[in-house]
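Researcher: Hi, I'm a grad student and pretty new to this. My advisor asked me to get structures for two proteins we've been looking at. I'm not sure of the right format, so I'll just paste the first sequence and hope you can take it from there.
Model: That works fine. Here's the first sequence with its structure tokens right after it:
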Amino acid sequence: MGDAFSALGVSVPLLLAQFVNFAVLLVILRLTLYKPVLRMLDDRKRRIAEGLNAAEIARQEAAAAQANIQAQIEAARKEGLDIVANAQAVAARIETEAREQAARERQAALEKARNEIQLERDRAISELRREFATLTVAAAERVINQSLDPQAHQRIIEETLAESRFSGN
């Protein structure tokens, strides 16, 4: 076999020396470089796994926060609807009270107007009686050409008015 290696241009002692050198280099690299590189790769793998776990936890927390926010928004919406409903109820109550107050005021104004009309009517009748009495006295004085006793005259006027249609009936 030595002739076959020499025919190919390969030196067996040189080949054995290269195998020994390669084995020594492999042992040295394994002791000095391979273990630190594996340790570094394991650390990197561990950090990536931790990062993925942290990302999953963050995703779950974000989902929980989103659900919490959605619940708060829904609660705020419900509270807003309650506030609007209460405001509408208050507005309806205020409107009803205002209408009732306006009706009371209108009724009071109507009653006051009726009283004022009655007072004016009474004043007008009283004034008309005085005028009628004055005219009657003046007419009687002209007819009789003399003045009557004012007390007797007043009594006659009151009796006449009580019998007439100006008695307030």
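Researcher: Oh nice, that was easy. Here's the second one.
Model: And its structure:
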Amino acid sequence: MDPSADVDESAIIGAGTRVWHLAQIREDAVLGTNCVIGRGAYVGPAVRIGDNVKVQNHALVYEPAIIEDGVFIGPAVVLTNDMYPRAVTPDGALKGEQDWRAQGVTVRQGASVGARSVVVAGVTIGRWALIAAGAVVHRDVPDFALMAGVPARRVKWVGRAGHPLTQAGGTHWRCPETGELYTERAGALSPTKPVD
């Protein structure tokens, strides 16, 4: 842990997790084992981060986000938590903690969120999905989807290795990196079996 990091004493940091220069880990956050929290990253109160997660430099993970095992959060990514942000109430008073309800983002196992992406409060990103750099994600993302644009839309399917899949006939897709086969049904993708 870098001496310049600000880690609340109530935060739980798993074995082998590294927290770099100027990162802030807030109260009651839980980080799993072998994670990397980059320079200047922010992890909000009670955020849950699994094992083998990378949160890159200057990423902002606002509470109550849930980040599952093996997730990559790219540089300057923002996971928001307020659907209707305002600094003041309708009568002009400064809003306090009691004036809003945080809705966290959930990022499922193995997913990657590219640099400078924004994920809107309440969204779930599916397993092994890939969010392209600079995307704005405002609705749930299916497993294995490659999302790009503003607003983000599915442009391809990706496999567990992160490479775009190639058509393998009918509703079947193949990973060019691993040879793993996937099947598409009703707008969803799931692995079938590896190629022999």
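Researcher: Is there anything I should tell my advisor about the second?
Model: You could mention this: The mean pLDDT is 95.
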